[in-house]
Amino acid sequence: MECDKTTVEKIQPYGVARSTVTGKPLSKEEIKQYDDFFKASLYLCLGMIYLIDNPMLNEPLKKEHIKSRQLGHFGSAPGQIFTWMHMNRLIKKHDLDALFVSGPGHGAPAVLSQSYLEGVYSEVYPDMSEDLEGMQRFFKQFSFPGGIGSHATPETPGSIHEGGELGYAISHAFGAVFDNPNLIALTMVGDGESETGPLATSWHSNKFLNPITDGAVLPVLHLNGYKINNPTLLARIPHEEIEQLFLGYGWTPYFVEGSDIESMHQAMAATLERCVDDIRGYQKKARDSGKPFRPRWPMIILRTPKGWTGPRKVNDKYLEGYWRAHQVPITGVKTNPKDLKTLEDWMRSYEPERIFGKEARISDELKSLCPTGLRRMSANPVGNGGALRKPLKLPNFRDYAIEVPEPGATGGASMSNFGVFLRDVVKKNPTSFRLYGPDETESNKLGDVYQAGKKVWLGEYFEEDGDGGNLAPAGRVMEMLSEHTVEGWMEGYILSGRHGLLNSYEPFIHIIDSMVNQHCKWIEKCLEVEWRVRVASLNILLTAVVWRQDHNGFTHQDPGFLDVVANKSPEVVRIYLPPDGNCLLSTMDHCLRSSNYVNVIVADKQNHIQYLTMDEAVIHCTKGISIWSQYSTDLGAEPDLVMASCGDISTNESLAAIDLLLQNFPELKIRCVNCVDLFKLISHADHPHGMTDAEWVSMFTADKPIIFNFHSYPWLVHRLTYKRPGNANIHVRGYQEKGNINTPLELAIRNKTDRFSLAMDAIDRMPQLGNRGSTARERLHTAQLSAATEAFKFGVDPDFLTNWTWPQELMEKNRKALGHLELKHPHH
């Protein structure tokens, strides 16, 4: 069906400015200045994409001056520059604290041009000076081997958002302004980016912004009409429909549409001023009254042609206002003299010789349009948040120790106990720490945190919300049922100098796989950038784990996030699987103190056996992996078998398997090994946490069978240990994609991680047991089938298996043996 003519006219981006806000705040002289600054910026953008030499076109453009491989994107640059430079006027007028977040993919030319013209780029990189030689180096480095990428990468001053993967600009911006009451995050949102799920949910962030304690996000939705080679959805719907969309999201949309330069300058200047006035007015009202409320925050919908100011057609094909302007706008300049001439004419239309002059730098008059010092958006300290970061004030985690009078037999609520510690972390850090999650904090047994900080909520309140709703405008817990949004908030919060923790169900953390990938790449690249200061670690606590999703079924059973994280650089990722509550406290204290890592911690939220006292837990976690002598029977002897585990539930089943083996073969010499730091398994040559081969052999031996019960997919352990001496002896058991509505033990049986399967596997690996092993194996198999049958019959596992504890007579026997060794070796 064809659109009618009036609809086409409503959505086309050309002509004299059409804007919601009318007014002419600029004089003719100011318009001329802004137009010259616009030209200087656009010239730099084309120079970055195309030129390796002849930066000021001091001689006719030749193909030798063109990069052999032209990379970069021009299409969104004009709109971004246009917004940035008009915000500068208001920063100067009102002494604003503002940060620019560039959402459109490959949007770096716009951001880099502003940083260069503001003088920040040359301050950070002195060889990129504001002269002919510096400009040439500035052009050459862009999307060039040994240079910088075409996103707003960590090398870009003022950037906390690379924009490599689309969809996170708004959530990052909100993360930056939480607890940052004077900051305005001016955020460009590409219309292609707007089609992503994460971006769509992030518009709801305005329901979480407290006008007293937080800053503000000023989104500018840039409708330039096209993605790579398709129209964008929001650019092709009627004006009324897009206005209603954002009214429905709770924003006040102001439109600026057109292409006529002079009228567009006036319209953008007037509209941005209205937006800033709205923001400051809402904040003043809330702060003067002391009563937070949810304003309809302003936003701008900016409609300009894609590749604005470029040639309308090249070789009889549309360029400006069409998808061909998206990336490298003219592609044949190296081979087609006509295209080369078109590019030269286009670049000369920006009058570089007049605007940059003989010294190849803009005049002081044009420079005066920019703010100075830290008020320049590319110099804002928030853009290098590590410089603002202060250490968390952490309570002494040892004060929250779970008492373990009978190790291996004492029960305890590991996660609930950690929640008490977390409550006091929040209490001690009321403006620099937030807890994030997708509506699962209470479910994850962390509800004690609400005693120090409730859930942020600026929506409507019902009477029943007082009955356990835990809602408050000035809360510290950020919950929204969008993993993308809460992860984006936390990333923005951390990158701007603060601290956070995300808690989530393990099976659905995959939703943010690629977000975590991007963050890992960001912090790894930051390690190579001298002026970037380390930020707090991104901490992800996974619970409701695969082995306790038996009741929710197959869809809820996936521990594979660890595989994703393990693929990232060893410089920036850590994975911890604490086996009990005291180890969880020790691990979390370490992670909350750390910087520039992605820490993933996996711990179940149900009650579990506690194995270690606090002193033992601290030593175990410091080592990362250790022999649990109190659960071993090989003290001072050669082991027959190594039983290893990694993960709390996996450890429970592994110890229960040791008990079964000793019931049948009390003379067996079994070594119990527990791993809390997964990367201890990898070679020291490949990861700084990895054990040396000598350490490996001393713990696992080089020739004894190893039954390794692992929380996640077994192949990950095989991958990490493939270089190890005697790696053929490692037999890993883990989740094998077998699940349904099961009991916990039956789910373990299906995946061969249960105590019976482990014990039978161990017997199979010890041929010296002979026929005695056959008899015991048969007995174990019968017991396993009997347990599974009872689960099918009654819907629960047998009590004697569910409530199993480590036999205290074995513990006492080991204590005596250990005491004997200590007497023989008093300095051990």
Explained architecture:
Helix content is 38%, strand content 13%. The radius of gyration is 31 Å and the shape is elongated. The N and C termini lie far apart (85 Å). 54% of the residues are buried. The protein has three domains: 5-383, Thiamin diphosphate (ThDP)-binding fold, Pyr/PP domains (Rossmann fold, 3-Layer(aba) Sandwich), CATH 3.40.50; 412-463 and 470-602, 3-Layer(aba) Sandwich (Rossmann fold); 624-824, Rossmann fold. The chain is built from 27 helices and 23 strands. Strand 16 (573-576), helix 18 (581-593) and strand 17 (598-602) form a beta-alpha-beta unit. The protein has 828 residues and is of the alpha/beta class. The strands form six sheets. A six-stranded mixed β-sheet has the order 1-5-6-4-3-2, with helices on both faces. It comes from Apiospora rasikravindrae. Belongs to the XFP family. Pfam families: XFP, XFP_C, XFP_N.
Number of domains: 3
Percentage of residues in strands? 5-15%
CATH homologous superfamily annotation of the largest domain: Thiamin diphosphate (ThDP)-binding fold, Pyr/PP domains
- For the record, the CATH class of the largest domain is Alpha Beta
Low-pLDDT residue spans: 1-9, 823-828
Distance between the termini: 85 Å
CATH-scheme architecture of the largest domain: 3-Layer(aba) Sandwich
Structural class: alpha/beta
Count of separate DSSP helical elements: 27
Radius of gyration: 31 Å
CATH topology descriptor of the largest domain: Rossmann fold
Residue-averaged pLDDT, rounded?
Answer: 94
- Percent helix, as a range, is 25-40%
The main sheet orders its strands as 1-5-6-4-3-2
What composes the largest sheet? 6 strands, mixed
- Oligomeric nature of the chains: single chain
The count of DSSP E runs of length 2 or more, i.e. the number of strands, is 23
